[in-house]
Design brief:
The chain has 6 helices and 12 strands. It is α/β, with parallel strands linked by helices. The strands form 2 sheets. The protein has a 9-stranded mixed sheet. A 3-stranded mixed sheet has the order 5-6-9. The longest helix is centred in the first third of the chain and has 10 residues. The two termini are about 15 Å apart.
């Protein structure tokens, strides 16, 4: 199994390390040719508007759209969630949104850098113990579509992870802990 990590900007190296730790052949994706060579894709955190511009300048928008439409499994964390959402409530007019999962998100919905926090989360597919969620300028899920499964919430019932068909998204950064379970689940789960 080859898992690509979109490596245009953001926390790609940590995702590559996590994927390698669970036995996946992880490669950085910066070109359409590299994208064509992977079975699954991780879209990491970073700055979503910058990532949008880099997707355009690297000729990756259309290839990613085609692969998503063909059912390629994808995990989007933080900015990756924003890029995959069907609606970005406060995005720029030129920002990419692939519309791959029927959710509405708000960029920096949990606050700016100073409001970053960590929390223990129950991720339904993983069971105990809790997953430590690291929230850094995290997007807030404001609407969940009818076909979307909520797979994790904060203690106050706030939605922080969802799944719809071949797409999994998280508001938090699972790669910033030592817990590899979410990456392992993404690699081994049949979509």
């Amino acid at each position: 199994m080859k898992v690509g990590v979109l490596a245009l900007q953001g926390a790609s190296a940590r995702h590559v390390a996590m994927l390698a730790a669970v036995g996946a052949a992880a490669i950085e994706v910066k070109t359409p040719e590299r994208l064509a060579d992977v079975d699954r894709l991780v879209m990491p955190g970073g700055e979503s508007t910058t990532m949008s511009k880099l997707l355009v300048s690297n000729d990756l928008v259309e290839p990613v759209q085609r692969r998503l439409a063909a059912g390629m499994p994808v995990l989007g964390t933080c900015a990756g969630m924003i890029l995959l959402a069907s609606e970005v409530l406060d995005g720029r007019s030129d920002q990419i949104d692939f519309g791959a999962i029927d959710i509405s998100v708000r960029r920096n919905g949990f606050g700016r850098q100073l409001e970053s926090f960590e929390a223990d989360l129950t991720v339904d597919a993983l069971g105990p113990p809790p997953v430590r969620g690291v929230f850094i300028r995290a997007p807030r899920v404001e609407r969940v579509g009818a076909g979307v499964e909520v797979i994790a919430r904060l203690a106050d019932d706030e939605v922080v992870a969802c799944r719809q068909e071949n797409v999994v998204v998280t508001s938090f950064h699972p790669e910033l802990t030592d817990d590899t379970r979410l990456h392992e689940w993404f690699v081994t789960t049949a979509f």
